[in-house]
Write a structure and sequence with these properties.
The chain is globular. Helix 20 (498-507) links the parallel strand 14 (471-477) and strand 15. Helix content is 31%, strand content 18%. The strands form seven sheets. Strands 11-16-15-14-12-13 form a six-stranded mixed β-sheet, with helices on both faces. A five-stranded parallel β-sheet has the order 4-3-2-1-10. Strands 18-26-25-20-21 form a five-stranded mixed β-sheet. It has 731 residues and is α/β, with parallel strands linked by helices. The chain folds into three domains: 5-49 and 103-359, Glycoside hydrolase, family 3, N-terminal domain (TIM Barrel, Alpha-Beta Barrel); 375-572, Rossmann fold; 615-728, Immunoglobulin-like (Sandwich), CATH 2.60.40. Helix 3 packs across helix 14 (315-324), helix 7 (123-139) packs antiparallel against helix 17 and helix 18 (429-436) crosses helix 22. It is built from 22 helices and 26 strands. Bound molecules: 1-deoxynojirimycin.
Length: 731
C-alpha cells in the first residue's frame, strides 16, 4: 500500500463520519445521535468525553450537570442501576453512562492470567473464556472491558508480560481476534456481550529495559512487523474501542501520536471506533515534557484522535475553552462525542440502560463457569521437565509432602487484575490434591517459607515432612503483585529463599516435583538441571489447584506450550526466538555474537512443552518447489502419537526468508494446529502458506514479498523441527 492510498482511506473515513453526523435522518438510531449532538451544550459535549473512577456522592453534582460520560471501576447490578438512573432521569438530556472495568482474565470467575492462557494455543478456548467473562460482567452492569491487552512482550522483566499473549506477533494476532470475538459476541446489544478495548496502543511492550511506563525507541519496521499486528487483527475482528499507551514512541507520546493514531489506526486501518486514553495519560503529556500545560495537552490529544479522557481531568475542564478560543474546532469535538454516543447506542444503552439483578445472581460463578475455569487452567499448564517419567503420580501413592508458599495460597492464584475475583472462590493446590487422592494416601503440608522474605525458619519442618513422604510437590513462584502493572523486576529468579527451599528438598533424595506459579517466565537454571519434574502453572485462577492436581495425577495430559522464551538469566533479556541473524552468529569463538558467561539460547524455547506421551514428526511434504505472487502452497507432515496416552500436540509452522533487501528473522511463526491423537494414531497436518504471508516491510516501508530462497519447518517448538526449502519466484 502507498501513503497516498492511506490518506484516501483516512479522508474517506472522516467524510463518512461527517456524513453520518450531518445527513442521517429518519428513524435510524444514528439520526437520534445527530440530533442529540445538536442539542448539547459545549459543557455537555465535554462531559461525554470525561471518565472517572469509582462512584461516590461527590460526583453527583457533576453527573447531574452532564459532566460525566463514563465511569470505570463501578460495577454490580444494584450500584450501576442506581448511578445510571441519575444519568438517565436527572440530567437534561438523559444520556446513559457507559461503565467500564478491567475484565482481563475473568470477571468473578477468574481464569488463568492471559500469558498462561495463551500457552493453550487455543483460540476457541480463549474465545469461550472471554465470552463467559463478558456475560458475567454485563449481568453486573458493566458494558466495556479494557481488554484484550495485546502488547507483544519480549522482555520478561516487564511485569505486564502477564497480561498479554507472549512474544510472537502471529500467535498474538490470532488470540487478540479470538478475545475480541469472545467479548463482543454476536453484537454489543446482546445481554451477554461487552465492548472490547485493544490496549495499549502502541508498542507499550517495548518499554526500555522492561521498566514500566518507560520510553520506547524502535524502528518503524519493528513497530509494524512486531508490535502492531495484534492490534490490526483486533481491529479487523471488529473491536469497538482502543486505549492509547503511556509510553512515548520515538519521542512522541502514544496518547498524542498522530502517526500511530491518525495515520495508521484511523487512516490505514479505517478504524472508526472510540479511543480512550490510559489513566491520566493526557495529563501526563505535560509530565513527559511534550505539552506545556493541560490546556495544550488537551489540544494535542484530541487532535491526535483520543475521544475519552480516563481520569485525566483535562478534557472536561478545558475543552469548552479550547473550542471557544478556536484551538480545536467544534467538528473535532463533535466527532469525539459522536464516537462515544455511537458506542452507547451500539450497546443498546439508550433503549435499555439498566440490568436485571436477578440475572447477575444466577449467572456469576455458575457451575459451567467454574468448569470452564478448570478446563482453561488445565490447558494453560506447561510441562517443562519430566525426567524418567516421574509424572504422572499414582493416586494410590502412600504419602505426599506438599510444600511451598504457594501450595495453600488462595490470594496469589488469582494473579494480577483479579477484577471481582475473591480468595474464597479459589481452590489451592493442597485442596486440589486432597480431593483427588485415594483414602489411603497421606498428604502432609508445610509452607516452608514466605514468597519474598529471607526467613528460613520453616525449612526444618518442610524438610522433615519431605523425608517422611514418598513424593514431594513444591509450589513456588511469585506473588500476584510481582507482575502486572508496576511489576517490573531486575531479577528473574525465584524470589526470597524459595530456591534454597527447593535445594534443601532436593537433598532429601525424594522424588521432587516443582510447580511454578508466576506472572512471567522465571529464570530457573538450577532447578532445570537438578529437579526431575517441573510444571509451569502460571497464576492459574480459581480452579488452579484442581487443574494442577488433574495434571499431576494424569487425569489430564499436559498440552500447553510456551508463548514466551524462558531465560537462563536476566542478562539475556530481551530474549525472543524471532531475532535477526547477526554477521557473526553466536558460536564458540569469542569473536561471535555471544556472551562470555552464558549461552545465547533460552533455557526453554518459545513453543516448547512436554506431554505424558510422545509425538513423532515425519514426512515433510511441500506441494510445490516454487511459489508465485497471489499463489499458495501446502506444507504437510505426519504426526504420530508414539506413546501410551492420548494427548494434544501443538504443531507449529515456521519460515525463514534466506536473503532479502532487509535482514529477516531466523524464524517466524506462520501457523499452528492443535491436534488430538490417540496412542498409535497418526495424522497428516497440513498448512496452507500464501505468498502474502511471506512479506515484510522494506526500506521504503512498503510491504513486499521478495523472490528468493525460503526455509520452512513443521516443528514441535521454535528450536526443533522438520526442515524443507522452497523458492518464491516473481513470475
Ligand atoms: C492503567 C492501565 O495501564 C490500564 O491497562 C488499565 O486499563 C487502566 N489503568 C484502568 O484500570
Amino acid at each position: 500500500m502507498k501513503i497516498n492510498k492511506y490518506s484516501v482511506t483516512f479522508l474517506m473515513s472522516v467524510l463518512l463520519i461527517s456524513i453520518f453526523i450531518s445527513c442521517n435522518k429518519g428513524d435510524s438510531p444514528d439520526f437520534s445521535i445527530e440530533r442529540l449532538i445538536s442539542e448539547m451544550t459545549l459543557q455537555e459535549k465535554a462531559g461525554q468525553l470525561n471518565q472517572v473512577s469509582g462512584y461516590n456522592v461527590n460526583y453527583d453534582k457533576l453527573l447531574r450537570e452532564g459532566g460525566l460520560g463514563s465511569f470505570l471501576n463501578v460495577f454490580g447490578a444494584e450500584l450501576t442501576n442506581r448511578v445510571q438512573k441519575i444519568a438517565v432521569e436527572d440530567t437534561r438530556l438523559g444520556i446513559p453512562l457507559i461503565f467500564g472495568i478491567d475484565v482481563i482474565h475473568g470477571y468473578r470467575t477468574i481464569f488463568p492470567i492471559p500469558l498462561g492462557e495463551s500457552c493453550s494455543w487455543d483460540p476457541d478456548l480463549i474465545q469461550r473464556t472471554s465470552a463467559m467473562a463478558a456475560a458475567e460482567a454485563r449481568a453486573s452492569g458493566v458494558h466495556w472491558t479494557f481488554a484484550p491487552m495485546v502488547d507483544i512482550a519480549r522482555d520478561s522483566r516487564w511485569g505486564r508480560i502477564a497480561e498479554g499473549s507472549g512474544e510472537d506477533p502471529f500467535l498474538g494476532s490470532v488470540l487478540a481476534a479470538a478475545k475480541v470475538r469472545g467479548f463482543q459476541g454476536n453484537g454489543l446489544m446482546e445481554t451477554n456481550s461487552i465492548a472490547a478495548c485493544l490496549k495499549h496502543y502502541a508498542a507499550y511492550g517495548a518499554a526500555n529495559a522492561g521498566r514500566e511506563y518507560h520510553t520506547v525507541d524502535l524502528s518503524e519496521k519493528t513497530l509494524r512487523e512486531i508490535y502492531l499486528p495484534p492490534f490490526r487483527a483486533g481491529v479487523d475482528a471488529g473491536v469497538a474501542t482502543l486505549m492509547s499507551a503511556f509510553n512515548t514512541i520515538n519521542g512522541i507520546p502514544a496518547t498524542a501520536n498522530n502517526f500511530t493514531l491518525r495515520q495508521i489506526l484511523r487512516g490505514e486501518w479505517g478504524f472508526n471506533g472510540m479511543i480512550v486514553s490510559d489513566w491520566a495519560s493526557i495529563h501526563e503529556l505535560v509530565v513527559h515534557g511534550y505539552a506545556e500545560d493541560k490546556y495544550q495537552a488537551g489540544i494535542q490529544a484530541i487532535k491526535a484522535g483520543i475521544d475519552m479522557d480516563m481520569m485525566g481531568d483535562v478534557y472536561q475542564k478545558n475543552i469548552p475553552l479550547l473550542v471557544k478560543d478556536g484551538s480545536i474546532s467544534m467538528r473535532t469535538l463533535d466527532e469525539a462525542v459522536f464516537r462515544i454516543l455511537k458506542l452507547k447506542s451500539d450497546l443498546g444503552l439508550f433503549e435499555n440502560p439498566y440490568v436485571d439483578p436477578e440475572l447477575e445472581r444466577n449467572l456469576i460463578l455458575s457451575v459451567e463457569n467454574i468448569a470452564l475455569a478448570r478446563e482453561s487452567a488445565q490447558k494453560s499448564i506447561v510441562l517443562l521437565k519430566n525426567e524418567n517419567n516421574i509424572l504422572p503420580l499414582n493416586k494410590n501413592i502412600r504419602s505426599i509432602a506438599v510444600i511451598g508458599p504457594l501450595a495453600d495460597n488462595k490470594d496469589e492464584l488469582l494473579g494480577t487484575w483479579k477484577c471481582r475475583g475473591i480468595r474464597d472462590d479459589v481452590v489451592t493446590v493442597l485442596e486440589g490434591l486432597r480431593s483427588a487422592v485415594s483414602s489411603t494416601t497421606t498428604i502432609r503440608y508445610a509452607k516452608g517459607c514466605e514468597i519474598n522474605d529471607d526467613n528460613t525458619g520453616g525449612f526444618p519442618e518442610a524438610v522433615g515432612i519431605a523425608r517422611r513422604s514418598d513424593a514431594v510437590i513444591a509450589v513456588v513462584g511469585e506473588s500476584a503483585g510481582m507482575s502486572g502493572e508496576g511489576g517490573s523486576r531486575t531479577t528473574l529468579g525465584l524470589p526470597g529463599v524459595q530456591k534454597q527451599l527447593i535445594q534443601e528438598l532436593s537433598e532429601t533424595g525424594k522424588p521432587l516435583i516443582v510447580v511454578l506459579m508466576a506472572g512471567r517466565p522465571l529464570s530457573i537454571p538450577w532447578a532445570a538441571e537438578h529437579i526431575p519434574a517441573i510444571l509451569e502453572a502460571w497464576h492459574p485462577g480459581i480452579q488452579g489447584g484442581n487443574a494442577v492436581s488433574d495434571v499431576l495425577f494424569g487425569d489430564i495430559n499436559p498440552s500447553g506450550k510456551l508463548t514466551v522464551s524462558f531465560p537462563r538469566n536476566v542478562g539475556q533479556e530481551p530474549l525472543y526466538y524471532n531475532q535477526e541473524n547477526t554477521g557473526r552468529p553466536g558460536g564458540r569463538s569469542r569473536w561471535t555474537s555471544r556472551y562470555i558467561d552464558s549461552p545465547n539460547s533460552p533455557l526453554y524455547p518459545f513453543g516448547f512443552g512436554l506431554s505424558y506421551t510422545t509425538f513423532e514428526y515425519s514426512n515433510l511434504q511441500i506441494s510445490s518447489e516454487t511459489l508465485l505472487p497471489g499463489g499458495s502452497m501446502t506444507v504437510t507432515a505426519d504426526i504420530k502419537n508414539t506413546g501410551e496416552r492420548a494427548g494434544y500436540e501443538i504443531v507449529q509452522l515456521y519460515i525463514r526468508d534466506i536473503v532479502s533487501s532487509v535482514v529477516r528473522p531466523v524464524k517466524e511463526l506462520k501457523g499452528f494446529e492443535k491436534i488430538y491423537l490417540e496412542p498409535g494414531e497418526k495424522t497428516a497436518v497440513e498448512f496452507t502458506l500464501g505468498h502474502n504471508q511471506l512479506g515484510f516491510y522494506n526500506q521504503q516501508m512498503k510491504f513486499v514479498v521478495e523472490p528468493g530462497e525460503f526455509r520452512v519447518w513443521i516443528a514441535r517448538n521454535s528450536e526443533e523441527g522438520l526442515e524443507g526449502n522452497f523458492k518464491v519466484n516473481s513470475k
